[in-house]
Design a protein that fits this description.
Layout lengths: L4 E7 L2 H9 L4 E9 L8 H5 L6 E8 L6 H10 L8 E2 L2 E2 L5 E5 L2 H16 L8 E4 L3 E3 L7 H5 L7
Parallel strand pairs: 6-7
Antiparallel strand pairs: 1-3, 1-6, 2-3, 2-8, 4-5
Length: about 160
């Protein structure tokens, strides 16, 4: 069995985030869902109505010998706007806020270092939260691999 690690990012709509990361060499699997809230096993409806406190996230299992956590962080920073609180594009709400959830002390340190680098290069305040990972709750099946199922990826990654 290959040694794997997990990364979790909230960067707006989880459909787009999953589409971005699932195509990366070294990423073994992706799953969209929710993290950071107070309700166990929240539904998409509860999250969208702001009733659970969760963030839409992509849960990434990867092989660190092929893709580094810092590479995933770079994709995270370069593919959403970390300066807009509770919003990404047309998607508005707390569930769309920018988050990095870490599992290890090394991930925390790398996330903080990358945050500082991005902040130094920006005239705007970076609002990305860096938090210890909590329970991950998978979203309903119809959300998983959404763009792949629809064969309608309008994204250009």
């Amino acid at each position: 069995m290959t040694n794997t690690e997990t990364a979790v990012f909230g960067m707006g709509c989880f459909w787009s985030a999953e589409e971005l990361f699932r195509k990366i060499k070294g990423v073994i699997s992706t799953e969209v869902g929710f993290m950071g809230g107070t309700v166990k096993n929240p539904t998409y409806g509860q999250v969208c109505r702001g009733k659970s406190g969760h963030i839409e996230v992509v849960n990434i299992t990867y092989n660190p010998k092929i893709v580094k956590y810092t590479d995933l962080l770079n994709l995270f920073w370069n593919n959403h706007d970390p300066t807009t609180p509770n919003r990404q594009g047309w998607d508005v709400g707390e569930q769309y806020s920018s988050h990095i959830f870490y599992f290890t002390e090394e991930q925390r340190l790398l996330a903080e270092k990358s945050f500082e680098k991005i902040q130094k290069s920006s005239d705007l305040r970076i609002v990305t939260a860096i938090k210890k990972a909590s329970d991950f709750f998978p979203a309903e099946e119809y959300h998983q691999k959404y763009f792949m199922k629809k064969n309608n990826s309008i994204l250009n990654f």
